[in-house]
């Protein structure tokens, strides 16, 4: 097993100090639209992270997680610093490098803080205890008298730095899940707003994203794209391109690309290629999308069910039904897919921005039919992903070009390529039928999601008869993970429908929800948002309206109150108050930053983002045609963090 | 011959090359980013004299004879520009990819009007995209820097 080999080699290179290896626990599977992405990557019962305290006192933490702007480089440092009783500045995070870090399935599904942070905390706590044990025996003092604080081991008037006690030996310890952790209520470093640890590199332009990586003799690549989805290459004349000095043309099956010493020449060579394409006609267009998704839907499966819908409807005084749709939208990470590939004899190294470094390593090994240990994927902190950078197509393209040219190649997808040849957030149709008593007690809830995904479709409402189904369908566009997965779509549909019920009964939307809610955490966030918003204390101005929505997903509860105005016939979001509860908060300021950012990103999907396509062609694959939220779209945002240190 | 961050730099490039590609590929100043190639996102923003320009659609010929300032040139004698400091203090970033362009647009705005209000900041920064959605923090950062520059009695 390659992981074992790598780890043994790696341990021998570390030298003296303390090494703590953490054993992974089973992780939740990730859903994305129809199929599980990276489904081939069943995580072995394996070492998930390790931590090394060198004799120089430097604490190095190795994890396969990637930083894409969610600020885990900082929050994971805090988690380790907390248990090691050492300042954050003394922690070095080594992330997402397949030669240096243990296998990791990927950075997605909001799993880093709930699963990786506790593992690293355990490793750090075990390291702290091992060092204290060592101090007790070295110094011949009572173990109980040994304290670890401020990055030092202290006992009976003696003191040593974290790296000073191992004296050339390597102390290796494997830990399981049964290590005791510092309770959140006693946190001194975690739970506080530590600034982004590499923020200075960001504001000075010094950080090197994958698209900024430079190598000696680096060539620039360009890929010839088909004229439409499904188009096949009928003929290619590359003679003119090949005559341009310094240009390499790579052609393998449907893959045609050029590499040149500079980007301008590569562009020139690309336009010199003469290709004919055989297109596939009659592909669906956005105007038929929702009918298409329903027509191609599978029977589906229950995600949550209780009682009998028939009985619930029979018990109802009033019945409602509604259909809700969500369009395909694009992640639009500001850094498009980018990769730099380099072959050294038979080893391939690729720097690329991806949320799945080990998945991309597997894709590369497969593409070139070489063992995985001959592929190294390095992920510099990446210009965002939002679930959009799970795949390795750009890495493979760069590696093919580098192989053909015999030199390192950089490939940065254009914005148009990113829109067209990445994958999109699944579109969906959601149908809801409901029954309610005239006093507002819900009796029945039947919910069907076609194509967009099941996540976040579960209800926290107390409805005696309910049935929630997800129907996979055939997607005209390539689709995949997106921030929050289908939770946004399912919350949008469910909470709109709840408002429609409230209005039909002339009930206050907050009171109506509370009447059907027993879940205490869900009630708490709703009450917190309503209070901060001043719900019920004032009436909206003419042309303005108030709305509320609640939800639960991935272990977190939230509630949002919003004020929306109609200006010139178009909705404008004026104010948003959101309360958020995810258990104990690791970094309040970074959590607020994420909550604010999620609200703003969601405004795009709610009000104006939509991928338009016709017969295998994208119609708006540019930022001048696909509008994303900008400064002027931002409402007044107030966030309320409900910090549950007891959970 | 170009004047970049106060130094004369010689490049061998045609007049139609984009300023962005010359900065990034020829001069290895990778702080300015590619985001869209059509001047829509502002990730490539640099200053020509004091004017913010989208370097991805600016031909090299337009930069000749002008003082080009990139994000790498803002720090003076180991001291960050007040707007760089303000970005750090307000946590006005997530992934950081838009940050250099945002800061350069903000510096240009501050150079024009010493004390812009929020509406003027929003208007002035409207051409820059932060897909992570840190806009409110960026507005706060520009406001903070404007205040400090005013107290120090200087312009950006």
Count the DSSP helices of chain B: 6
How big is the Rg of chain A?
27 Å
Count of helices of chain A? 15
Strand order of the largest sheet of chain B: 2-1-5-3-4
Q: Ranges of chain A with pLDDT <50 over ≥5 residues? A: 1-5, 26-45
Coarse shape of chain A: flat
Describe the biggest sheet of chain A? 7 strands, mixed
Unreliable residue stretches of chain B: none
Mean of all residue-level pLDDT scores of chain B: 96
Q: What spatial form of chain B do the alpha-carbon principal axes imply? A: globular
Largest sheet of chain B: 5 strands, mixed
**Distance between the first and last residues' Cα of chain A:** 38 Å
What portion of the residues of chain A fall into strands of 2 or more residues?
25-35%
Mean pLDDT of chain A: 93
Which pair has the most extensive contact?
Answer: A-B, 58 and 55 residues
Distance between the termini of chain B: 26 Å
- Percentage of residues assigned to helices of chain B: 25-40%
Question: What oligomeric state do these chains adopt?
Answer: heterodimer
Give the class of chain A from helix and strand content and strand pairing. Answer: alpha+beta
Give the ordered list of helices and strands of chain B.
EEHEEHEHHHH
Features:
heterodimer, A: 647 residues, alpha+beta, 7-stranded mixed sheet, 28% helix, flat, disordered N terminus, B: 156 residues, 6 helices
Structure in words:
The complex is a heterodimer of chains A (647) and B (156). In chain A, helix 9 (357-368) crosses helix 10 (393-405). A seven-stranded mixed sheet of chain A has the order 11-12-9-19-16-17-18, with helices on both faces. Chain A is flat, with a radius of gyration of 27 Å. Chain A is 28% helix and 27% strand. Chain A has 647 residues and is an alpha+beta fold. The two termini of chain A are 38 Å apart. Chain B is of the alpha+beta class and 156 residues long. The longest helix of chain B has 17 residues, at 135-151. Chain B is globular and about 40 Å long. The chains are: A alpha+beta (647), B alpha+beta (156). The interface between A and B is large, with 58 and 55 residues.
């Amino acid at each position: 097993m390659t992981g074992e080999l790598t780890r043994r080699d790696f341990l021998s290179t570390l030298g003296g100090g303390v090494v703590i290896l953490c054993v992974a626990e089973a992780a939740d599977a990730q859903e994305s639209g129809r199929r599980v992405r990276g489904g081939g990557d069943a995580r072995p019962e394996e070492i998930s992270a390790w931590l090394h305290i060198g004799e120089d006192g430097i604490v190095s933490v190795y994890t396969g997680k990637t930083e894409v702007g969610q600020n885990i480089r900082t929050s994971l440092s805090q988690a380790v610093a907390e248990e090691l009783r050492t300042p954050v500045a003394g922690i070095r995070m080594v992330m997402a490098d397949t030669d240096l870090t243990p296998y990791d399935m990927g950075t997605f599904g909001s799993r880093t803080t709930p699963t990786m942070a506790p593992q690293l905390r355990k490793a750090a706590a075990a390291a702290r205890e091992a060092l204290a044990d060592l101090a007790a025996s070295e110094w011949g003092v009572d173990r109980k008298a040994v304290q670890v604080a401020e990055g030092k081991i202290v006992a009976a008037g003696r003191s040593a730095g974290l790296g000073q006690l191992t004296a050339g030996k390597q102390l290796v310890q494997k830990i399981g899940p049964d290590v005791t952790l510092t309770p959140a209520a006693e946190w001194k470093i975690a739970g506080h707003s530590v600034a982004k640890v590499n923020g200075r590199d960001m504001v000075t332009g010094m950080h090197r994203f994958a698209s900024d990586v430079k190598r000696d003799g680096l060539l620039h690549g360009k890929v010839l794209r088909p004229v439409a989805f499904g188009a096949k290459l009928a003929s290619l004349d590359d003679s003119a391109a090949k005559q341009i000095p310094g240009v390499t043309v790579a052609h393998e099956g449907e893959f045609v690309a050029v590499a040149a010493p500079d980007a301008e020449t590569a562009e020139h060579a690309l336009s010199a290629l003469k290709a004919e394409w055989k297109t596939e006609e009659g592909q669906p267009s956005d105007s038929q999308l929702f009918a298409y998704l329903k027509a191609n839907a599978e029977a589906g499966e229950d995600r949550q069910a209780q009682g009998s819908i028939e009985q619930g409807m029979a018990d109802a005084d009033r019945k409602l039904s509604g259909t809700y749709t969500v369009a395909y939208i694009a992640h639009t990470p500001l850094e498009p897919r980018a990769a730099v590939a380099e072959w050294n004899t038979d080893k391939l190294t690729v720097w690329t921005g991806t949320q799945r470094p080990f998945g991309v390593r597997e894709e590369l090994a497969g593409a070139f039919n070489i063992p995985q240990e001959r592929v190294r994927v390095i992920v510099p902190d990446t210009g965002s992903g939002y679930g959009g950078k799970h795949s390795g197509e750009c890495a493979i393209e760069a590696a093919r070009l580098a192989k053909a040219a015999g030199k390192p190649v950089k490939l940065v997808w254009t914005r148009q390529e990113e829109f067209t040849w990445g994958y999109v957030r699944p579109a969906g149709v959601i149908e809801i039928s409901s029954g309610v008593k005239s006093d507002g007690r819900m009796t029945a809830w039947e919910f069907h999601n076609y194509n967009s995904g099941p996540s976040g479709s579960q209800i926290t409402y107390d409805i005696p008869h309910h049935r929630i189904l997800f129907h996979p369908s055939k997607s005209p566009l390539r689709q995949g993970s997106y921030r929050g997965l289908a939770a946004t779509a399912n919350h949008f549909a469910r909470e709109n429908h709840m408002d429609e019920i409230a209005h039909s009964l002339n009930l206050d939307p907050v009171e109506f929800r509370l009447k059907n809610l027993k879940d205490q955490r869900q009630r708490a966030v709703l009450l917190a948002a309503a209070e901060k918003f001043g719900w019920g204390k004032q009436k909206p101005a003419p042309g303005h309206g108030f709305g509320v929505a609640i939800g639960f997903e991935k272990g977190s509860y939230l509630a949002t109150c919003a004020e929306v105005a109609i200006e010139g016939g178009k909705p404008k979001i004026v104010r948003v108050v959101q309360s958020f509860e995810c258990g104990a908060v690791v970094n309040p300021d970074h959590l607020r930053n994420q909550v604010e950012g999620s609200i703003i990103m969601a405004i795009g999907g709610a009000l104006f983002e939509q991928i338009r396509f016709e017969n295998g062609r994208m119609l708006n694959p540019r930022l001048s045609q696909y509008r994303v939220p900008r400064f002027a779209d931002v409402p007044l945002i107030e966030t309320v963090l409900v910090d549950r240190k007891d959970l | 011959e170009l004047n970049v961050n106060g130094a004369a730099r010689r490049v061998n490039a045609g007049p139609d090359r984009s300023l962005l590609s010359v900065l990034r590929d020829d001069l290895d100043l990778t702080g300015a980013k590619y985001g869209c190639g059509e001047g829509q996102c502002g990730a490539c923003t640099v200053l020509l004299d004091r004017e913010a320009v989208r370097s991805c659609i600016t031909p090299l010929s337009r930069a000749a004879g002008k003082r080009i300032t990139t994000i790498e040139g803002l720090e003076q004698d180991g001291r960050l520009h007040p707007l760089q400091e303000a970005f750090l203090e307000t946590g006005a970033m997530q992934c950081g990819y838009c940050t250099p362009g945002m800061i350069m647009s903000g510096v240009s705005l501050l150079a024009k009007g010493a004390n812009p209000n929020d509406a003027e900041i929003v208007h002035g920064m409207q051409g820059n995209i932060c897909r992570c959605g840190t806009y409110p923090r960026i507005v706060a950062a520009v406001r903070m820097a404007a205040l400090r520059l005013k107290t120090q009695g200087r312009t950006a």
